[in-house]
Design a protein that fits this description.
By secondary structure, the protein is of the alpha/beta class. The protein is built from 8 helices and 18 strands. The strands form 3 sheets. A 7-stranded mixed beta sheet has the order 7-8-9-10-11-17-18, covered by helices on one side. It has a 6-stranded mixed beta sheet with strand order 1-2-3-4-5-6, with no helix packed on it. It has a 5-stranded parallel beta sheet with strand order 13-14-12-15-16. The longest helix has 17 residues. The radius of gyration is 20 Å and the shape is globular.
Length: 341
Amino acid sequence: MTDLVVVRKEGLYCVPGRFYIDPWRPVERAVITHAHADHARTGHGHYLAAAPGAGILRARLGEITLDAIDYGQTVIHNGVTISLHPAGHVLGSAQVRMEYKGEVWVASGDYKVEADGTCAPFEPVRCDTFITESTFGMPIYRWKAQADIFSEINDWWRANAEQGRASVLYCYSFGKAQRILHGIDATIGPIICHGAAEPLNQVYREAGVVLPPTLLATEVSDKALFKRALVIAPPSAGGSPWIKRFGDYSDAFASGWMQVRGARRRRSVDRGFVLSDHADWPGLMQAIGASGAPRVIVTHGQIPTMVRWLQQNGLEAGAFETEYGAEDGNEVVQTAAPADA
C-alpha cells in the first residue's frame, strides 16, 4: 500500500496530486474540509471545497480563489480523482476522497454521525485508508441523543424565564450556535445572538437551514425582554461588558467537554450541556467500520488510545501529527483537540 498522503511542514499533502488538505501554512493549492479556523486558513493560492460551505468560507476568509463543487462531484488533478462527501460536522463540512491508480484514501476532516438538520448528514465512504480525527477517541465519551440535550436546554431556559432571569448559553459561533438554534423550542422567549454568531446565522439561512428569528442585543429596545431571553454567545464573551448588560442571568456551556468531571467548574458556569459536533467513541468506531478500510491513520485528539485500540482489533493503524485544534480564536480545552467540540 502506497503513501498517497503524507505530512509536510505545511500540512497533509497528497503526493501524486500535489495538493494539500487543510494546510496550516500558505500553499498554492488547498482542499478544505470545512471552515473552522484551524482547518481553513488564509493565504492559499487556490481553494477547493464543498459548495454548501462556500458562503461560510468567503464570510470567514474574505476574497479567495475558490472552486466549490457539489458533494459527490469529481475533479481530476494531476491524475488523482477527488470528490467531497458529507462529514456531518458543520455546514459544508466534507470528507476528501482521493483515488489514484485504483487505490482510495479518505481524509475525514472533523465529523459526527448523528444527523442534526443544519448540514448534510455523514456519509460513509469505502476506502483502503481512512484518515480519522480522534477528538473524543476514548470509550468514556458516549453522547446522549441530541433531542434529550435540547430538552434539557429548554427546561433550563424556561425555568430561568419564569424567574425573570436571562439564560446565557456559551457555545462556538460557527456550527454549535446554529445547531442549538435549530434544535431548541423558540416559543419560550426571545433569542439574542452575539455579533460573532449572527452573521453566520444568516449564511445558514441563505443555505436553506431553518433557524428561528434572532436579535442582536443592540436591536432590543425593551430591556425587559432580557429577562426571558436565551442569549447565544461565544466563550470569549464571558465576563465582558457585553454580557453584563443582561443583568441577572444564569449561564451554561454547551460542549462535549462538559462530560469531563470538573469541566463546568473550571468554566465557572451554572450548567453544562454535553453537546458536541464531533463523533463520540461509538461514532468513531461506526465511521471507521463503515469505511471498510484495513488501514487507519489517526489525527488530532486521543491518538495513542485510538491507535492502540485499532491495532488490537486487527487494523493497520498509525498516526499523523497535525496542527489542528485552536478554532475560532478560543482557547483550546484540551491539548491537540479542537476548541469547537
